[in-house]
Amino acid sequence: MKELMLGNKAVARGLYEAGCKVISSYPGTPSTEITEEAAAYDEIYCEWAPNEKVALEVAHGASLGGVRAACAMKHVGLNVAADPLFSISYQGLNAGLVICVADDPGMHSSQNEQDSRHYAIAAKVPMLEPADSAEALSFAKKAFELSEQYSTPVFLKMCTRVAHSQSVVETAPRAEVPQVPYVKDPTKVMMTANSRNAHVRVEKRTRDLIEWAETCDLNRVEMGSTELGIITDSTSYQYAREVFGDNASYLKIGMVYPLPEKLFTDFASKVSRVVVLEELDPILENHCKMLGIPVSGKDIFPICGEFSQNLVRSCMGMEQPETRHIEDVIPVRPPVMCAGCPHRGVFYTLKQHNCMVYGDIGCYTLGALAPLNSMDLNVCMGASCSGLHGFNKAMGKEGEQHSVGVIGDSTFIHSGITGITDIAYNMSNSTILILDNSITGMTGHQQNPTTGKNLRGDPAGKVDLEALCRAIGFNRVRVVDPYDLAAVDTAVTEELAAEEPSIIISRRPCVMIKGTVHKPALKVDESKCVGCKSCMKIGCPAISVRDKKARIDTTQCIGCKVCTQMCKFDALSE
Amino acid sequence: MSVKNIMIVGVGGQGSLLASKLLGHILLQQGYDVKVSEVHGMSQRGGSVVTYVRFGDKVYSPVIDKGEADFIISFEQLEAARYLEYLKPTGRIVTNTQKIEPMPVIIGAADYPENLITKMEATGISVDAMDCLTLAQEAGSSKAVNIVLMGRLSKYFDFTVAQWEQAIRDLVPEKFIELNLKAFALGRGES
After folding, report:
1. Are A544 and A557 in contact (CB under 8 A)?
2. Nearest to B103 among A109, A326, A336 (CB)
3. What is the pLDDT of residue B119?
4. pLDDT higher than threshold 90 for residue B64
5. Chain B environment of A321 (Cβ under 8 Å)
6. Which residues pair with A358 in a beta bridge?
7. B185 neighbors B148 (Cβ within 8 angstroms)
8. Which residues in A247-263 are b (16+ Cβ under 10 Å) and which e?
9. pLDDT tier for residue B41 given thresholds of 50, 70 and 90
10. Which of A179, A194, A258, A292 is the most exposed place for a label (fewest CB within 10 A)?
11. Which of B20, B42, B44, B116 to mutate: most A Cβ within 10 Å?
């Protein structure tokens, strides 16, 4: 049956149809729905792992156990999973292993726009790259075949526009794949002679795959006008077809590593001019140059950001469509913390303390935006803890008394535990706030090891954050309610002043969690409101001031009452 | 048929997902090739959100670029103006007249431009503006703004009311069907 399907859901469908039995992942936009959608199939065991390294190791373990397995992550997650990746490439598998990785050109929801194709080259792991949902589904199945045929993990590389676009697919029934028996094999221990032999095996595997890539149906030639030949991959192929139609010929690459050689040179010989169209880094282009094919690529197309049809037109010197516009300046509408967000009170308090705030990755990164403006920087998951420790080692007491690290519950489990271990072990007097909102928020509400529920929402193990921090060596561990501004202020004041490292756990569930009971919207007593705008300092999207009176948007306000603590005139109430 | 382009724009949380689902569903049923593209994650938190819906004999690019949209469906005035450049000069904006102030306006760092609808019309494009929030509330829920807008959009398509209503029945949970059918009729102006 034909249906419209999200790219990520099509990946999940492909994994399902291929008989995949185990998926372990860490959420990250734009990869999250792969695992969520796979969890809709009872035949697949799906879990959220604490981080991507664990997820890949779990999936590989399942492959050794004899069943087809997969993991999914965003591009920066692959950095975390890189350690096992390189050695798994050497060691090989038992049943098929597919690593889904989703890049984010244009950084819609990411801190960088690294190109994951480099990992395929560096780890010598084949990488398939679909250009729409139908390919996402069929390539996922192909990836398992290839993985077992060549005893290698296989990447399935998505990008935002393929992952988060719906296009037409046709589904097929699931193929049940028999479990492969586990057999002890002493060459699987990756040390000395075994590793040296494994490297030789990997090099031969790559040569075999190049040979296979020359004729495989993942790469295809579509001949049109021979005036222009376009070598392209992923969503860039769609933009090229959109702009040039049959006025060009195309070499559409579906396996971006390893790349064929004869296919490239043959295609180039049939066209007058070759242009390479690929987002981010010049990987196909450099391959052409290595083969001695004269091409245009990053000399005309940008390395930074996403492509689109107009960008292709513009870079190729073609006319842009006519547009209309008005003169007014349109104010930006950045994302904001939701009305009632428990992070708001924490960042307001940190602003009052004028601290150096080392932030981390999650909804709370929005604490950097106006009017809270209370995050100095962020780097990657967990850096708020380890980075703050280093900062304080450099700054001494002056730093220790005026700085905090801020990290969410899921991010803390992902990579914060090792950082606070360094704080406790190597004794910097650092203060870490764990913003425990009982969910992985930014990626759309996934469970994690602190929530007591698993991916499917069933009861699961639960990390006791207070006990964990104490066991690591923190004597000062306290819990505050972020809706109580005075309590947060006292906690921050006392822990910054304390002569030893501290953990403050700010605990209050995300207001967007399904089933959270909201209080009625607050009311403004206009006889008391003087229009002083004190309530506006917390940056709540439900509050505005019009005609010198505060106004509450009753469709947004959930009655958290943080604003009432800002008002000296008692004008806001239930 | 050459490809037609519809953009759905609004503020994160306003319900554009159901609108694009409904459009995708009905267009696929009519036998078109369809692509629907949206951005998840950071942009959902009250930020400006945009969804692209493209249909025709064969659709390649998942996105709509400046000067390419036949329709912009907007849940909010400012968002209609923000994406005006994406409209073809012959295109049409179907917009809710509701205003939702963005944070820079709330904190006084920017002004919400006035008379946006008149100014957009003055550029020569067609604007169909209506108070969808009031109609949605009349239908029974302020959350039905999306279906009110779909009702309005349906006037510009050849599909029958029965086809639209069936699509609503196919996609909306049982208990909300009546409410959404009413919202659709109010948007279409036939209730």
Report:
1. no
2. A336
3. 97
4. yes
5. 65-68, 88
6. A377, A405
7. no
8. ebbbbbbbbbbbbbeeb
9. low
10. A292
11. B42
**Is A318's pLDDT higher than 60?**
yes
Residue of B nearest to A325 (CA): B85
CA dihedral A236→A237→A239→A244, nearest 10 degrees, is: 140
* pLDDT band with cut points at 50, 70 and 90 for residue B44: low
Let me know: does B23 contact B71? Beta carbons within 8 Å: no
Distance CA A547, CA A518 (A): 28
**DSSP assignment of chain B:** ---EEEEEEEETTS-HHHHHHHHHHHHHHTT-EEEEEE--GGGGTTSEEEEEEEEES----SS--TT-EEEEEESSHHHHHHTGGGEEEEEEEEEE------HHHHTTSS-PPS-HHHHHHTTT-EEEEE-HHHHHHHHT-GGGHHHHHHHHHHTTS-S-HHHHHHHHHHHS-GGGHHHHHHHHHHHHT--
Distance from CA of A339 to the nearest CA of B (A): 10
Q: What is the pLDDT of residue A58?
A: 98
pTM here is 0.97
For A545-564, what is the mean pLDDT? 93
Taking every pair of Cα atoms in chain B, the longest distance, rounded to a whole number of angstroms, is 49
Task: Give the gap in angstroms from C-alpha A555 to the nearest C-alpha of chain B.
Answer: 9
Q: How many helices (H) and strands (E) does chain A have?
A: 20, 22
Q: Which of residues 483-542 of A touch B (CB under 8 A)?
A: 536, 539, 541
Q: How confident is the model at residue B43 (pLDDT cuts 50, 70, 90)?
A: low
Question: Would you place residue A252 in the very low, low, confident or very high pLDDT band (cuts 50, 70, 90)?
Answer: very high
Strand order in the sheet with B48-56: A2-6, A165-170, B33-38, B48-56, B4-11, B69-74, B87-96, B126-130
Burial class (CB in 10 A: 0-12, 13-18, 19+), A173: exposed
Contact (Cβ atoms closer than 8 angstroms) between residue B14 and residue B142: no
Query: What mean pLDDT comes out for the span A356-368?
Result: 95
Q: Where are the beta strands (DSSP E) in A92-236?
A: 97-103, 127-128, 154-159, 165-170, 220-222, 229-233
Quick check: A2 contacting B, CB < 8 Å? yes
**All residues at 6 or more sequence positions from A43 whose CB lies less than 8 Å from its CB, including other chains:** A16, A21, A174
Cα separation, A101 vs B69, whole angstroms: 31
Contacts with A549 (C-beta within 8 Å, 6 or more apart), sequence order: A524, A526, A529, A531
Residue B2 confidence (pLDDT) above 60:
yes
- Asked if the C-beta of A151 comes within 8 angstroms of chain B's C-beta atoms, the answer is no
The DSSP line for A302-336 is -SSS---HHHHHHHTTPPPPP----SS--------
ipTM of the complex in this document? 0.95
